[in-house]
Amino acid sequence: MNDLRDVIIQPLITEKSMRVMEENNAYTFEVAPDANKVQIKRAVEQIFNVKVEKVNTMNMRGKKRRLGFTEGKRKDWKKAIVRLHEDDSIEIFEGI
User: Fold this and answer.
1) Residue among 79, 90, 73 at smallest CA distance from 14
2) pTM assigned to the model
3) Could you say which of 3.40.190.80, 3.30.450.40, 3.30.70.330, 3.40.630.30 is the CATH number of the domain covering 4-84?
4) Who's near 94: CB < 8 A, 6+ residues apart?
5) In what order do the strands lie in the sheet with 8-11?
């Protein structure tokens, strides 16, 4: 990946991710499916100017959906939970 902003697609804001953010200072992002932990760590550190302690990744399967007789499937995606140093934080609501 040439650009760091190609690694991180968007932050995930759910009830569970907000609870993890408050308890563990960890932020959840949707990332590129071919990104590895080192690339994710480097991208978060350089984009948000913070110190990353740990990165956990998960491959999420897309849900099956149907409309009448037509069956489909949502796309598969990758989720990363990024734990920051205790002194750092990210303001993810700036663009909202």
Assistant:
1) 79
2) 0.86
3) 3.30.70.330
4) none
5) 8-11, 26-31, 77-84, 52-60
Structure tokens at 49: 């100017």
How deeply is 12 buried, as exposed, middle or buried, from its count of CB atoms within 10 A (0-12, 13-18, 19+)?
A: middle
Query: Which amino acid is present at 77?
Result: W
Three-state DSSP state, 94: coil
Work out whether the CA dihedral 94, 15, 31, 26 comes out positive or negative.
positive
User: What pLDDT, in 10s, does the model give residues 7-21?
Assistant: 999 999 999 999 999
Helix (H) or strand (E) holding 22: helix 15-24
